[in-house]
Each structure stands twice: as structure tokens, then as C-alpha cells.
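The data are set out underneath:

___
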Amino acid sequence: CSGFPLSIFFIVVNEFCERFSYYGMRAVLVLYFKYFLHWDDNLATAIYHTFVALCYLTPILGAIIADSWLGKFKTIVYLSIVYTIGQAVLSVGSISDLTNNSQDSPSNNLALHIALSMIGLILIALGTGGIKPCVSAFGGDQFEDDQEEQRSTFFSLFYLAINSGSLISTIVTPSLRATECGIHSKQRCYPLAFGVPAILMAVSLIVFVIGSRMYKKVKPQGNVMLEVSKCIGFAIKNRFRHRSKEFPKREHWLDWASEKYDKRLIAQTKVVLKVLFLYIPLPMFWALFDQQGSRWTLQATAMNGDFGISIHPDQMQIVNPILIVIMVPVVDSLIYPLIKKCKVNFTPLKKMTVGMFLASMAFVAAALVQVQIDKTYPVFPAAGQTQIRLINLGLTPATVQFQPQLQSVDLAPNEATGYMIFETSKLQSLHISSESINETRPLNLQEEKRYTFAFKLSTTGIEPGPIWDNVTSKPEEGQNLIRFINNFPYAVNVTMDDTDFGELTPLSVSNYSSFPGRAWSYIIKASSSPFSCTVLSKKFGFGGAYTISLDDCTNYSLNVTYYEDIPPSTVHMAWQIPQYFLLTCGEIMFSVTGLEFSYSQAPSNMKSVLQAGWLLTVAVGNIIVLIVTGASKLSKQWAEYVLFAALLLVVCIIFAIMASFYTYIDPNEIEAQLNEEEKEDKKDQDDNKKEAEADSRM
């Protein structure tokens, strides 16, 4: 088809579906850990990065299996089956109805969900990692040697399929997660968010198998990584055996492998090791980069996602692939040429150093955003303390004094105070006075709790008493908590959209109910036979808690007063864009340049070794996240961001020093030199053979 083997279209579609499956699942994973499995931020982050590390360790296993035993086709098919099963198991494990028979309570047996989720993730890591090095190489195998242009176009299409799958899935699966589903318990729809990627992975497998008869299948020819590993191992062992001074030193420690391995392999291994040595500092970059899906997503849960439409926290990850699509051509066609015109020798290693610096600055930006987020968090009472807030629901001004003579507050009609902190042991009573009322109310409050004292002055006294506010933290994931106080003189039934708060007697308070933040209003309805009044609510924002007083009804229009229990998130998610921009620019300079540099410095048959080494740096980077977050006892998230930024900055300096000592090589020249040496060796052997034959004739 236009000079392309028809088989490559099956491979491109396969890659699109597989990347959709992987990135779609990964986009919602950390929120699944936090909100469904009820793990804290640190544990959710740790398990997330453990999973990502496994995904980048298993490609080495997949490459060895494909090159040494099964071949690429069978490896892709078998591990795709494992992959699909893993996605299905994860989806089933996220079904709350497996263990939950109560509509109002969360799953009461998390052990089953955790077990299924971990089994599913292990199978996914084995599958996605195992096929990662095989699919692109298998696509390259479909072309003949004289189809270089078509092969290049294929890899462009292949890369487009990867980014398209990632981009679309990062939009779709968070939206699926945000819906509610379930038979006994309505919760976030993780089964659908994981189920759609599972279906796409099954489609990926089916499409790949359909093209089976069209594929050019190359038989396994041995794995060069194993040969290199054996060569290095033998050199070390042989050098250890001959460590005595009586054995002469050799020019390079790898030369101790010359007794068993040919000069070409030893020379090529030396070149590869020079590049792999530069890889040592690289994992620190990935330690920061992969926190987009963990810490940065968790950061977004405490932010305002109103962009005209509601953006979910896990959808902010889409900023990275969008910026990649925009910035790669800008950097290649504008930034690099401008730098070249300025006669700056911007070598690949210098680009990588700048990329690491930009990633470090991205975490400084994340820390600054986190400081602003922390300012919006409410202060809850500590040990020995109680918080109390006053609301005057009546039409008469009142003065409230906290006894014994702690504080005095004047309240106008329908006015509320903020939460005031008192030592629990000292707060004994409230004295409320107005023109017609003078009354003292004893208080029996508990430590570390919040209370609202909503009162209404009347000729019969003061009603009601203190209300315990059972909210102990700021609502997350853009949710709002809403409750109602009935300020009518008679009982009313209260609803807000489809949520029924039941019947409220005069001056009684409903329980809190959760409502997602959104860019439009809810319908509040109060009814009592024979009348019914409605009003459109205000826009609540994201992450707030509100008490709404139902005051009266005028011409079927409900009059309400809003009291802010917990302020909504005021830091907008758009403030994450600068940190994503810096990290994406760092990725372009670090990752794209790093791969190009590695390939330009390695012999043609050693590129798979460097690919394995590159993937290994990603795995080690995620392990570093586990170590740092586990070892550091920082209580503030912004401090952890600063710590990671500082660590990468130090590593960046070390890498710059290492890079300054590196000498760039041309692998083609080395190959030509090796070919020349082999010709000379062969000529010497032929000459020796002729001399031996001549001697034997004499």
C-alpha cells in the first residue's frame, strides 16, 4: 500500500490501542489508590512508583525472551494475553459491589480489592514492559533493506500512535472515573475507567493477531545484551584470577575478556560502557518527571478546576502531551537554530544538562504553588482545643459572651462569625443578650472538635443548641459538602437536585451531603404541603463546605443564606501549567536529546543495549522516589518538592562535570577501523598459512 507493507497498519493500530490502555489506566491509578482503596498520599505514591518501576524493568526480560527463545511475534502475542488479563483483573477488583451490600457505606472488605488490584498491576507491568522493546522492532522488521524512507515514515506513524493513544486516554478515562456507578453503592466509576482500557487492550491483541499471515517473522538470533553481560562478567572474573603482580597489566580491564571473546565485541562493549557510565546520574531526572502522575495529580485534587467546564485532577496530566506536540517543532525549528546562530556550541550533553535544570525548576514552581494551596487549608482544633462558630438566624441583633469572660461578639441578623479557637477546659457557657433576651447556656464540648451554635431569639428563649460539625478535613477531588438549616417556623422537605435531605423540623440541621464542584448551579427545593419553593444555588466552587439557611419563601421563590464552613479551593489548576511547561521543556531537551545522543554514540548492533540501559534509568528513578519519600520525614509537601529540586540540581552539576570529560566518537569510524584490523588479521593468518604450507613441502 503506497510502498508500505500492509502488515504495518495492524502494528500501528495495535500500538495506539495498547498505549490508550496503559496511559488511560495509569492516569486514574493514584486516585484509585487514595479514594477507593483509602490509602494515604504516601502509600498511594509509593505503590504507584513501584508499579511504574516494574513497567520499566520488565522490558529487559521481554527483549531477552524475544531474541533468545520465542521471537518477537510470539512474545508480543503471549505477553499481550497476560496484559489483557491483568487489565481485566484490575477492572474487576475495582467493583465495589464485590464486597459491599450497603448503599451508604464504603466497601467493608478492602483485602479482596487490594489483592485483585495488585495481581492485575503485576500482570500489566509484565505485559506492557515485556512487549515494549518488541513492537517497534517488529514493525521495523517488516521492511526490506532498500525501504529506509518507508521505515522512517513508519516510525513517525508509530510515535504518533503512541502520543495519540496517550492524549485521548488521558481525557477519556478521568471523565469515566468521575461518573458514578454501582448496584448497592454509588461510587466513582473505576470499573468503567479500568474496563475501557481493558477492552482496548483486547482489541489491540485481536488486531495484531488478525495480521499474523502478513507479518515477516524473523527467527530469534540471540540477544546481544546477554553477550555483553557475559563478556563483562568474564573480564571481571578473569582479572580477579590474574590479580597477582606477576601478570602484566592490560590497556583496559575489558581486555581481560580477549581469551574468550573477539576483539570486535570487546571494542564495542568499551564504547557502550562509556555511554552507560554517563547514564548513572540520569535516574534522578525520571524521579521528578514521573511524579506528574502521583504527587502533581494529588496536588490538583486541592485546586479549583473551573475552566468554564470542570476539569478533573487526573486530566491535568494531558498538559504534558499537548505541550510536547507544540514544543518539539518549536524547539527544533526555532530555539536550536537561534542558539546555533549565536555560535554557541550547544552539544547534546549540554542540552541534557539544561533539561535537568529545567526539571529542577519545575519542582520549585510546584513548591510555590503548594505554598499557596496550604494557605487555603482550614485550621482545625489541636489537642485541648475546641472551635466554635456563631450564626444569628433571627431578625434581632445579639451580643454573645463566652464565659468566663473570654470573648464578646456582636452579631447582626443573619450574620455568622468565623471559627474561634478556645481551650476546652476554660469554655464553660455562652451568655446571649439582646433588647428582650438575656440568657446563659451551659456548654459541654469535646476537645479537637468543631461546633456551630446557630440560634434564633424569640419571646420563648434561645433555640437550638450547639451543632457538632463532623468535617475533619477539607473536601478533596473538587467535592463540596452541603447541609441545610430549616429557618422556617414549620417542617419542610428539602432536596438539592436529586439528593433528598429529608424532612427538617424548625431550626434542625441536616447531615452533610457531597456534591461535585461544577460550573453551573444546583436546584434547591423546600416543600411543605401545599406549597413548594425553589431557587438556583450559587456556584459552590471546588473543595468547600457550606451550611445553607432556608429563610422564607416569596412568590414560590426560596430565600436562602449561605454560610461558609470551609472555604473552597481558590488556587486554580491553571497555576500548574508553568510547572508542566518547565518539565516538558526539560523532557524535550533531556529525553529526546538523550536518546539521539545514545544512538549516535553506539555501534549499530549495540543500540538495544543502550535502550535497555535507558529504560533501566527510568525504573531506578521511580525507585528513588520510593526511597526519598520513605526516608524523608517532611510534613509539608512543598518541602518535599524543594528536596527533589535540590537533589536534581546537585545531580545536574555532577552530570555537567562528567559530560565535560566525555569525548564524542563516530561509531562508523570505529566500525571501519575494526573492519580494517580484521582484514589485516585475516591477511596475516593467510600469510602464515601459506608459509606453513611452503615449509611442509620442503
Q: What stands out?
A: The two ends are 67 Å apart (CA to CA). The mean pLDDT is 87. The longest helix spans residues 110-141.
